[in-house]
Amino acid sequence: MGELVDLTDGERTALEKLEERQRPLRRGAVLLRENEACNELFVLRKGLMMSYVLLDDGSRQILRFLFPGDMLGVSSAIYREAPETLAALSDCVVSPFDRAALAEIMREHPRLSALVLVYSQIERVALTDRLAALGRTSAKARVAALLLELRNRLRATDRSIANVFALGLTQEEVGDATGLTAVHVNRMLRQLAEDGLITRGSGRVTLEDEHALARAANYVNRYEGLDLGWLPQPRS
Which residue in 6, 27, 124, 175 could disulfide with 180, CB within 3.0 to 4.6 Å? Predict the structure, then answer.
């Protein structure tokens, strides 16, 4: 949350309390399974995770990729059963905390409560973009948009990242996020490289022409252009 506003000492202390406990997860481990009861929420401290749902035919639709600093399982706080599965895409560390801790933050720190709403809306709009892309854009545009999204989220936690980043995903995982097969993803990555928009090697992707890639993807960075002037003042 400190990326969007300057937090007070009291706000930082409240957030740090959420991260007092730590739980390691190995790549592939499931933290929370769809339709299971859950009384905990989590903060992702290290690694890359995903949320997904399983469809009736057994296929998987990845909804979001989750990065350090993200609060996990917030949607589960309002349901008796989790609406999505949370799984580790790399070795991860999460901090579990009880729902009551989130309720306390909302009582004592109204600005942090508003920021939870802000992040939820950013995710909602990003999911709307993904839905529109799945229904109306080409396979190449979907893959291009995902590459830009991953780079921008990684850069939010590591400002040293420019146009070169570790993809950290298999082609199957990219396909499950974009509604494509792994073979089709491979073909689209090759086309993007042939168009001079990206290069690949050693598990890393270089965005060779970021502006052209964004145009090809119809991509909008939803972490930019925010208007947060309405946020309540922090309590002293």
Answer: 175
Domain ranges in the chain are 9-106, 138-217
Q: Is the pLDDT of residue 235 over 90?
A: no
DSSP for 151-172, written as a single string = HHHHHHH-TT--SEEE----HH
Q: Facing residues of 92 across strands?
A: 25
Distance CA 188, CA 232 (A): 45
Instruction: Retrieve residue 220's tokens.
Output: 């909008």
Question: Which residues face 136 on adjacent strands?
Answer: none
- Token pair, residue 177, equals 């996020």
Q: Does domain 138-217 have CATH number 3.40.50.720?
A: no
CA separation for the pair 146, 170 (Å, rounded)? 13
Residue given tokens 């086309």 in the structure block: 191
- Residue 155 CA to residue 175 CA, distance in Å, equals 23
pTM: 0.92
> At residue 1, does pLDDT exceed 90?
no
